[in-house]
Design a protein that fits this description.
Layout (H helix, E strand, L loop, with lengths): L1 H14 L6 E7 L2 E6 L9 E11 L5 E10 L2 E10 L7 H12 L6 E8 L3 H5 L5 E3 L5 E3 L13 H14 L5 E6 L5 E2 L2 E5 L4 H7 L6 E4 L7 H7 L4 E6 L7 H17 L11 H4 L2 E3 L1 E6 L4 E5 L6 E2 L4 E6 L5 E6 L4 E7 L3 E2 L4 E7 L11
Parallel strand pairs: 2-3, 5-6, 5-9, 9-13, 11-12, 12-14
Antiparallel strand pairs: 1-2, 3-4, 4-6, 7-8, 10-20, 11-13, 15-22, 16-18, 16-21, 17-20, 18-19, 20-22
Helix pairs in contact: 2-7
The structure holds zinc ion.
Length: 364
């Protein structure tokens, strides 16, 4: 706990503070629009709803992000929950909606700032990526664009606005909720930077199936916060595109554990990594299709596999087997392809493993 409290002081110094909450004067469906947030401005002991004005589209209209702030009646840690960076990943959006609905700000210490759908362009198209139309259609992985660019493309501007005008000064701990991508599936899985003990502590408060000790991805929400010395996790809640009640419930349970541990809420811890015996690996290998073809996958999420075990095969349009894939190493099945039609480089199977190389001790 001492390390977590120390972090708050370091974070305040590192991440600065906003001047004020700026209201544009507009309301949409009765909800006030803001262009900048400073939680210090808001009345305590209340749940606040806003639409945060993001980037603009080609006809000069704005993307508005749904923002909720539960501001506790007592001071404490400032927790940020983000969801919807990838538009086909909806379990996290529902988990964050449910968490906010469960909070009583009068009994909360600190604040919870929640975004339930950070990439409305992609969510509305049930698509992983943000589409831009400069020089024809192109798409961007919004979760590689943080901290954004003030004068960049629409998604780069949106990342810049979120980083500088929404999150800055309002974050001590960050949880970013995802799932695997369309055509593939994860268990309840967490990417966590184990080089920082307080991030390990946060990760192991979740009743996840698997955790990867992970040095991070440049430009992701998680890694951009970690680089700013603010502990953050990427939580992967299973399969994209549909809602999974078990994944959502476990994400809520772990998030409540985080708030209890940070002394934001009173209560007893629910299930954690130790109580569900989470498998923790430090390396992963993805077996990708080497050519196109229909895929048969012979393993399930969480299966333990031996080196050399047959994992998958592909067939051509006549049904002939054209390629077989064996495990390059022992490991645990972290992801499987769920779409049978697989182009070259598509994920067939991903394995999480414990690599004995000392360089991988805290994550490769
Ligand atoms: Zn994602």
């Amino acid at each position: 706990m001492r390390t977590l409290v120390t972090t708050i002081a370091l974070t305040l110094a590192a991440f600065g503070s906003q001047a004020a909450t700026l209201y544009t004067g507009d309301k949409i469906d009765g909800v006030p629009v803001i262009s900048q947030l400073d939680i210090k401005d808001l009345p305590a002991g209340k749940l606040h709803r806003f639409l945060f004005r993001g980037a603009s589209n080609g006809i000069g209209q704005y993307f508005y992000l749904p923002v909720q702030v539960a501001k506790g009646s007592k001071p404490g840690s400032r927790l940020v929950l983000n969801s919807g960076n990838h538009g086909d990943e909806v379990n996290g959006i529902r988990a964050v909606q449910n968490i906010m609905a469960s909070l009583n700000p009068e009994q909360l210490s600190g604040s919870v700032l929640a975004v339930t759908g950070s990439n409305p362009d992609a969510i509305n198209r049930i698509s992983r990526e943000w589409a831009t139309y400069n020089d024809g259609l192109s798409t961007s992985n919004f979760n590689r664009l943080f901290p954004g660019k003030e004068n960049g493309t629409a998604p780069e501007q949106q990342a810049w606005l979120m980083w500088n005008k929404l999150w800055q000064g309002n974050a001590d701990y960050v949880l970013d909720y995802h799932t695997q991508s369309s055509g593939t599936s994860f268990p309840f899985f967490i990417y966590a930077d184990y080089r920082q003990p307080r991030i390990q502590q946060l990760a192991e408060l979740f009743p996840a199936d698997q955790i990867k000790k992970d040095p991070g991805e440049k430009g992701s929400t998680e890694t951009t916060f970690v680089e700013a010395n603010i502990p953050a996790l990427t939580l992967e809640l299973g399969t994209p595109r549909s809602l999974d009640a078990d994944m959502i419930a476990r994400a809520e349970e772990g998030t409540h554990n985080v708030m209890i541990t940070l002394k934001m809420l009173e209560g007893k811890l629910g299930r954690t990594a130790s109580s569900v015996n989470t498998y923790i690996g430090n390396d992963m290998v993805t077996i990708r299709a080497e050519q196109g073809g229909y895929a048969d996958i012979f393993v399930k999420l969480g299966d333990k596999v031996e080196k050399g075990q047959l994992l998958a095969q592909q067939r051509n349009i006549f049904g002939d087997i054209i390629k077989k894939y064996n495990a390059p190493t022992a490991g645990k099945v972290l992801s499987v392809g769920t779409d049978a039609v697989r182009e070259p480089r598509a994920t067939l199977v991903r394995l999480l493993l414990q690599n004995p190389d000392p360089k991988c001790q805290l994550g490769c």
